[in-house]
Amino acid sequence: MSLAASAGVEIAVIPVAGLGTRMLPASKAIPKEMLPIMDKPMIQMVAEEAVRAGIRHIIFVTHMAKTAIENHFDRNPELEDVLAEKGKQALLQSVKDVLPAGVTFSAVRQGAALGLGHAIACARALVDGRSFAVLLPDVLIDCSGEDEDLGRMIRRHLETGAGQIMVTPVPRERVQDYGTVALSREEEGDEDDGALITGIVEKAPAAEAPSNLAVVGRYVFSAQIFPALEALEPGVGGEMQLTDAIARQLQDEPLHAYLMQGQTFDCGSKLGWLEANLHFGLKHPECGKGLHALMARLCGENDAS
Ligand code: G1P
Prior knowledge:
The chain is an alpha/beta fold.
């Protein structure tokens, strides 16, 4: 086990520099990551997932048009004063608790949109040789039960020293939207232990993909991934792909596929975002019952027409 792994995983890198064209026009003037799931921006849901997994410092890889994200995680004394004066304690707490005490963040700019691999490489100096998690902010994950996927991935990384890549099976016709992995034959289908990845390809057509096990948007890496990220050449879509750096890294260190247990929502698409709103909305302490009744009424009206 590497020294970095034995010290724990307390850093998460969240790339937020993308322009969010799939959510236009909503994302024209605000970052797509600030679109809400009920009353919380998506990026806050992702940060909370990281914090529940033990992350203590979040690095946003960001863009000049996305300062709203840093502002959201900062304090807002003027707003806090107004809420305190009006005695709105619950609201005051909700704006103060965007990050819990002891959790900090920093931001580094990705000056040019050169791809996900390039974005993660931008965080190298801040990661500073430690193991770290990567969370793609388009993907929301809901784990029922207390033992959440990212926390389990981090534990496996600490136990084995191997990088962890979250995967889930997808229908063949959707394979080309994802990175897909090949597993070592003995370990294929083993759901309990991390299966050794032998290959990984970005957005391959179903006929060429090594499997239908798609990369979901959660990773745990040792800092050894950085030289592979910095050596990247343009790949699919002319972008420097994280997947290509992982493929290269497989030659030097073991990386494991972690089969996700939770439910995933692709909030980079309009319908996926809406589905996440309905899913989390039904669980919302204040609005869940009302939303349930609303959905039943709307479905009833549609059935009748
Ligand atoms: C990225 C990754 C891809 C992964 C996907 C998961 O692609 O490059 O390997 O499967 O996220 O959401 P993107 O959706 O950003 O094009």
